[in-house]
Amino acid sequence: MTSNDITGNDITDIKNSPPPLRQASTIILVREKNKEFEIYLLRRSTKSGFMGGLYVFPGGVADSEDFGFDFWAPYIDMEHGQIEKQLGGQNFPMEKIMGFSIAAIRETLEEAGVFIASGKGKTKKDIENICTFRLNRNLSKSWFRTKVMKEDWTLSFSSLGKWSHWITPKLMKKRFDTRFFIVFMPENQTCVPDDMETKHGIWLTPQNALEQNLDERVLLSPPTVVTLTQLLKISNFQELKQEIKTRSWGDPIAPRLVPTSNGPVIIEPWDPLYDTDEKIDMSYLLEKVLPACSDFSRIWCDKGVWKPVDI
Q: Does 202 map to a domain?
């Protein structure tokens, strides 16, 4: 979200009801490097209607073709019960698990050129071919579904881990109910932005990404700043592997958006004033900006840069 995304025409009239939520999925791609771990970030096109110009994780809206257990079951590497155990949760039935998970894999292929899948007799060349095919400009809505079926791919649900569940603030004109999955980068694959929705990709440690956001070199979206701050708590790759094995979706993260004359502020659910009607002091925001990698519960859009601020 740039400052233009959440001011003026892109903020709903609070007298009206919030826009409906669209189902969406995101994948946090992780790789190990020099005994640390790095995260892959993509810069969305400035022409995008949501978070234009900001760095995010690969992802997008779930299509109707992403749903349907009966169709997809033969093309997944896990059985019904295994899927529920690994990816399920409260108020997350199998039909939704299926759609969100398929969307996550499809969007990561479309945007980042990474295919979280395998298949009997499949070679590196086969992976490269489908990663090249996704760059065609006139793909049908059902291209992924058709490709998986005709070429007999097996989607790697076993590679997906749970990270978080986000709901876009009510004042946004575009709102999403999004599952953030986490995946270790498949071997022998390379991330390549699609040059349509995404224009540039970069691997960074969480710390480097957060520092470069405040330096205005890699501008991050608000959920990306929160997620990278969460990942700072994990010291190494092995610890991250253990975290993913036991992690639940947790409660949905549904921030509040507060427009101000100095730029919008997002209030996270763990802020002490999140659930109160008490007026939140938004003065002297520039003086309240926190150093990179600090814990925070508020994030301020200062001329297009999302900066954690003190309460």
A: yes
Q: Tens of pLDDT along 21-75?
A: 999 999 999 999 988 999 999 998 877 667 778 999 999 999 999 999 999 999 9
Number of domains in the chain: 1
Q: Provide the CATH number for the domain around residue 42.
A: 3.90.79.10
Residue 255 lies in a domain: no
DSSP string across the chain:
--GGGGSGGGB--TTSPPPPEEEEEEEEEEEEETTEEEEEEEEEPTT-SSSTT-EE-SEEEPPGGG--HHHHGGGBSS-HHHHHHHH-BTTB-HHHHHHHHHHHHHHHHHHH----EE-TT--HHHHHHHHHHTT-TT--TTHHHHHHHHHT-EE-GGG-EEEEEEE--TTBSSEEEEEEEEEEPPTT------SSSEEEEEEE-HHHHHHHHHTTSSPBPHHHHHHHHHHTT--SHHHHHHHHHH----S-B--EEE--TT--EEE-TTSTTTT--SPP--TTTGGGBPPTT---SEEEEETTEEEEE--
pTM (2 d.p.): 0.93
The predicted structure's pLDDT at residue 64: 95
Residue 72 belongs to domain spanning: 3-246
